[in-house]
Each structure stands twice: as C-alpha cells, then as structure tokens.
Amino acid sequence: MGMAPVRFTILGPVRAWRGDTDLDLGGRQQRLVLALLLARAGTVVGLGELVDAVWEDDPPTSAVNVVHRYIGTLRRLIEPDLPVRAVGDHLVRHAAGYQLKVGEDMLDLLRFRRLAGRARQERDPGQAVPLWAEALGLWHGPCAAGLERGLPTFVAIDGERSQAMREAADTALAAGQARAVIPALRQAVGWSPLDEPLQARLIATLTADGRQAEAVEAYQEVRHRLADELGIDPGPELAEAYDRLLHQKGSPAAKEPERTFVPAQLPPDQPFFSGRESVLARATALIGEGHRQGRAAVTLAVDGMPGIGKTTFAVHLGHRIAGSYPDGQLFADLRGFAAQGTAMTPDEALRGFLGSLGVPQETLPAELHALAGLYRSMLAGRRVLVVLDNARDFEQVRHLLPSAPGSLAVVTSRVRITGLVTTGGAHPVPLDLPSPHEVREGLVNRLGAARVEAEPAAVDEIIARTGRLPLAASVVVARAAALPGTPLSDIAEELAEAGAGLDAFGADEDTDLSAVFSWSYRALSPGAARMFRLLSLHPGPDVTVAAAASLAAVEPRAARMLLGELATHLLTQSRAGRHHMHDLLRQYAADLSTRHDGPGDRREALGRVHDFYRSGAYEAQELLARALAPPRPPEPRAGVTVPAFAGPEDAMAWFDAERRVLDAIVEHGPPGVAWHVALTLQTHLHFTGRLPAWEATMRRGLAAAVADGDLAGQAHLHRSLAGALFNAERDDEAPEHLTQSAALFERLGDRPGLAMVELNWAYVRAEHDEHQEAVRHSERALEIFRSTGNRENEARALRTLAGSRAQLGHTRDAQDLLRETLSLSWDIGDELGAGHSWDLLANLYRRMGRPEEAMARWEEAAGAYKRAGSPAALAEVQLAMGDACRDAGEEEAARQHWREALGALAEPVGPVAAQLRERLGDR
C-alpha cells in the first residue's frame, strides 16, 4: 500500500498535509517557491520568476543553486520514497523551469475554481448558492497569507475570490438565501475593508436577512474608514445599498428607543487599579467583535481562583466602557460563594433589576419565567451593561442575561461555568496571576514610586511571599499604607517570619486567605476535597490526570472527574491536560492534609507519585535510542497508573512536559528514586542539547546514588556525567569519571557497561587526535558488543572505528565500515544510528573534495535526525551544511542553515550554539 498523497492549501496560509500530519514546509523562501508553483499549478514557472519572487531585485549569485535545493527538498517532501536522482510524478523539471502537477484532490485552489465554475453554470439560483458557499468556504485568508503579498499571481487569485464573492452574493439575494453567504462576506470584507462592491453586498444581504441594525453599523464603519484612510465618501454602489436599507418598510434605522429610568449600579472603581492591560484589551476586542456581528447581546465569562481579583477587574472594565451603554448599568452580587448566607436566587435578582428599571414592585408577576420575560422586554432596544458578580452556576444567571443586540453581560465566578459558554454563548475570559511587573506597578500606585524604588529587595520579597495573588498583595499593601513610616523591609521580614503559612494575611473575614479559600473548599465533593489535600504533596508545579490518579490511588477516569471539579474551584489548567495550584492554595491544602489525612496515608500517597514518575520515566527512555539501558527500577506499588507511550516522539514529548516535576524529584526526592529518575533523563537531555542541565542532573543523581549506596547507579551516572562534560567540551574532568565508571562496572561484572566505557574512551581519544588509541578502544568495545549480540552498539563501535580510520588515512576502509553501519542501522530500524552514519560519510566526502556528495549525505542525516527526534544532532548537521554553503560562496543559503540549526536547539547554549551565534553575527 503506497504512501498517502500530499494535500496543499494556498487559499490562506500555505500548508501541506499527508493524511492527518501537518508537514514542515521549511523557511519563508522555500514556502514562497512552493506557493508560486501551487498558484501556477499545471504550468511551467521559469527559474527567473522563482528567483525574482524570492529575492525581488537583489538576488545573490547563488540564487539559482538555492532554488534548485529548495526544489529538491520539496520533491522529497511530496514523494519521500522517490529514489535519488529519479524523476518524480509531481514536481517536474523543464528546460525553462519547473512545473508542479497536482490534481483537484491535492489543491484547494483547483477545487475552488471547479466549484465556482459549476455555480456559474447552474441556472437555478437556489441550486447555485450551496456551490458558492462550498467554494468560498475553502478560503482561510488572502492567497499565500503570511508570504510576499505583492506578487501579481497572488493578487490575481485574490481577485478571483472577490469576483466569486460578488457573484455569490448576487445569486443568494436572487434566491432569497442571503443568510447563506453572510459569514463569507464578513470574512471577505475583513480582508478587503475598502472594497466597496463587497461592502455594498454585505449591507444588502444583512438588510435582506432582516438585520437592519447590523447593516447600519456596517455602513457607518466603512464610511468612516473611507473617510479616514482615503479621504473620500462612499461611492454610488455603496450609497445605493444604504439608501435601500433606509427606505425599507419598517426599518428601525432612524428610531430611537424610549428611555425612562437609567440605572447606574456599578460599584466605585478601584482608585489604584493597575495592570491587566492584555486581558482588558482582549475583553474589549471580544465586545467590539460581538457587537459588530450584532446577532445578540455579548456575554463575557470571567473566571479565576479565589483572590485573583475578578470583581475588581469586572468593575474596572465596566467603568472603562460604561459610555458605550447609555441606557444604564446593572450590578448584582449573586453571593455564589459567600461566607455567610445563601446564594441569591434568579427571582431575587430579577426583582431588583426590574425595580431599578422603573417597574413598581407591586406590579411584578410571581412566576420566574414571567419575570424573565418582562426583564427581556424592558431591555429590548436598549444598550445596557449587566455585571453579575460571584455567580455559582449557569442556572443562577441564565435568566439574567440580556438578549437584545447592543447590550453586554459580564459574569464573574470562581468556577468555570461551562454552560455559560456552551449554551449561553459567552466568551471565556480567564483571569490569571498578574505579572511581577504588574504587581510592582500596583505597589507604586498605592505607596508611591519613591518608597517602592528605595527598597527593591524588600519589594521583590513581598511579591514572592504573596505569590502575586491580588488579594494577598492588597492585604500587605494596605498594611504598608497604614504604616507610612515603616520600612518595607520590616513588612517583608514579617512575612518571612510567618513562613509559608497564611497567618500573615490577617484574620478579617474579607481578607483572611484561609477563610476565603474555605468558601470554595466547602463546596467540594468528599473525593475532590481529598484530591485537593493530597495535591499539596505533589513534587512539581503542575499535575496531569495520570499523576493525580496515582497520587490518590484512583482510576484515571475518576481522577479526571475530580480534577475537573477542582478546576472549577481551586486549580487552573496551565497547559493542555495539566493543572496548576497556586502556592498559597498549596499551603492551604497542606494545612488541611496535615489535619485530616493520617501520616501513613500521606506517606503512601507520596510513594505512589514517586513510583509513577520513576516507572514512567524508565518506560519513556526505553523507547529512545540510548546506548546503555539504566538499571530497571523496582515494581511500582499498588494504585499506580504507569504511563504508556505510543513511540519515541510521545516519550520525548512526555519528558518535555514533565521536566520540571522530574527535576524536582532529582533534587528533593528520596535518593533511591532520585538517581533512577536522573539516569532516565540522560537521553532526552542529550538529544535536545541541554548540556548544562545534563551535567547538573547527573551530578545530583550521582550524589543520590552514593547516598543510596547503589553501585550500579553510581557506575552509570559516572559514565553519563563524563558524556555531559565531553559534549560540553570540558573533557578535562571526563576521564576521571570514566575511570571510576569502569572500575565500578568491573567490580559488578557488567560487560556491556565496560564495553560502553571503552567506546566512550574512543570518543575522548579521537577528540584529542589520538586515533591509534581510539582504534584500540573501539575494537575492544566492538568485540564485547558482538559477543553479546548487541547490534545497535556494534554499529556505534564501527562508526567510531570508521572515523578514526579515516583520520589515519584509510579512506576506503572507513567508507566500507560506514556502509556496513548503515546496513546494520536499517536492519534494526535505528534512525539515529543511520543519521550518524550519513553524517560521518558526509564529512568524509567533504574532506575528499566532493562537496555535492557531502551535501546529499548531510540531507539524509538531517532527515534521519528529524525522524529520530534528536534536535541537537540535527543542529550540528545544519551547522555543517551552512559551513559548506559558505565555503561555496552561497552566503544566504549558509545563513538559512545556521538559523534553522539555532532554532532546532531547545536551549541555545553550549559549543554548537556559540558557533552558530558567531557565524550569524549574534554575540
């Protein structure tokens, strides 16, 4: 069964897929070459045209060669199984240039043209409208969005869209199906806001769909834009569309709603409010976009943990935008999580709002639905702001939301009210912790710049101790403001003396953090309350469902439900599938756990979570191409859900996601767990080029293995630490660790371990140009690997032997050895090993003065390293390819390779990163 064909899109960003996999199309220049070939699909694009598209008026001397290289890369992308130098079926070379042969099933532009052609041929407008809608639905942005916008080819394709859009609108109006094309029209005028024919058709379709208010707003917006940007009035077509709108029977365009009572219930704004600018900007944008769509009132759902400042934010936002709602502002504290009393009922809230709107209480109906109906009728035709603070659930607010276009509701809650978003159509506006800069800005606003700037260390301490939680910070700031003569260092010292507890933040019912947190804790189910308490034992900053399941000894499905309950009260979802607990909440949970969970339960929970990470890390590294497997850890205890991984990419992604937790275990966990986890991190840190972290992790792991008295762990960790030092070009210390590792492996009778140390010695000797010694070590390692049937390490030893043989002048012998290693690597499916072999062959060909063959082998190596998930090795290959291009006078191609190499590194530190920055002139 052949490989699935590639599908391309150019009606928007240029992208490509094979099956469900989004393919990497390379840098901007290569994508631009592909875009031009796609835009001219089926016709020959001249080399000169491709060069002009990429470099405009200033191509380098190597431009043609670079385009050929881009073409080669794209050909391998489209047909990866194509033999070297074979002519492909899709990207074809002609004397004048290149032609990309793609069918309608491979390119959205061709499908768009076919559907548009069918729509034009359809005599029945009602049958043509769905064809137009399908054709226009293929567009996701201007042609080749994100690339060069001035190319005539792309501009012409955008013109096809505009023409199709005009025809589609006219057809829909004739068929009485205006609504079918309004979304595409809105999208089109967003891309081309000064296109008057498109704007005229948007106004006409909105009018035909009975959405006169939106049509008026659309006209006013384009009229202002034409005046501001072009200094002109609307043209005849646009003016005619507006005239038809105004003279439509029953048009409300000139009507003004009757206004009686104008409530102004917003509480006073916080006089020292600061920060939150990005969230305020997002909220304002959502409001503006919602009102422009004009279908209904806009609702914002503001949620966040206790003490995060939701009410303060909502009130400040309300005051900022109150002028846009001339018919009044309504406010209610729904007491969803009040310390005392019961939550406000919808009936109670509606009666209060209707009274504020001038309806006598004695005339109000008794039924909830009748009250809600009267409320909606009172708001019809008005622009009102409604702030519903401290909501508990959707049922509490559903009848309080305005429905008429032009109004706004802002709902705050410490829970994530799913129904408000799914059923109520609200826009979620999660409120996270402010940045340290924003907290500092708040201190300046309240205490004055002079006082804050005079004691920067104390201010840093205050920010750290409050965890940037606005409620905690406000308590401390209020105390500092009440004691203007007290140095901030004294207040910081008070916080430090209070330790990690919550006592430092007062005992007032409104500011006591324990009391505020308890309002949410009391609302939890027993299972969620237990999970919350045990989460204080988790060793890292965030937790997954699987880790939480092991911590609490429950099934993952149950853990997901419990975390979901906590995520609506006391946790935040920091990343997909990961939940984070604020430090002050963690301390609150720890206090509860100390009181309610027995010492044995806490000890077992912590043991389970350590087993989860130790066993999971071991299983993950088993899927990676490591040279020497670490010792297997003990079996995890009952209740632990050991992670399962789909393959190497999944394993590498898990290490990336869990790095902070694993680091915490290595640094603070029990020695028997810490050294096991440290060893499993070796391959991930090596592959991603995190050399400082590799060294630091192995040093901590070695100390833990010594404390645990485990000789095998010490032997492995000495060897890994030597590798970290060697790769960081600090091999003055590496030999000492190799010597200790060899002695321990010898004592343990571990022949594979001894063989691996011999191979590591070969690396060290070769690095110091002691190639005869390197050959001797490689042959010793090779003998043991062959005797134990370890084919992967046999290939490693042969590659090392080949490298030294080449340096000693035995070129033919080295080539034969490397071809043998390639065969070995292919037989056992070792992509990383194959990449190393291609890399060594490329270097050999380069020294032999055969640069083209070297470049071809490096490209093979790069592909293998990508498939193996080794970005550090990929960066070294890209560095070498860039150097080869520079030596050939192809400076721009060289810089492109160097930039890609730097981008491949997870952390741009170490020798390779230093060389890349030097070449790019970035010191």
UniProtKB/TrEMBL annotation:
Keywords: DNA-binding, Transcription, Transcription regulation. Residues 1-102 bind DNA. GO terms for molecular function: DNA binding. InterPro entries: AfsR-DnrI-RedD_regulator (IPR051677), BTAD (IPR005158), OmpR/PhoB-type_DNA-bd (IPR001867), P-loop_NTPase (IPR027417), Sig_transdc_resp-reg_C-effctor (IPR016032), TPR-like_helical_dom_sf (IPR011990), WH-like_DNA-bd_sf (IPR036388). Residues 1-102 form the OmpR/PhoB-type domain. The keyword DNA-binding applies. Transmembrane segments: none annotated. GO terms for biological process: phosphorelay signal transduction system; regulation of DNA-templated transcription. Belongs to the AfsR/DnrI/RedD regulatory family. This is DNA-binding transcriptional activator of the SARP family. It comes from Paractinoplanes atraurantiacus. The lineage of its organism: Bacteria, Bacillati, Actinomycetota, Actinomycetes, Micromonosporales.
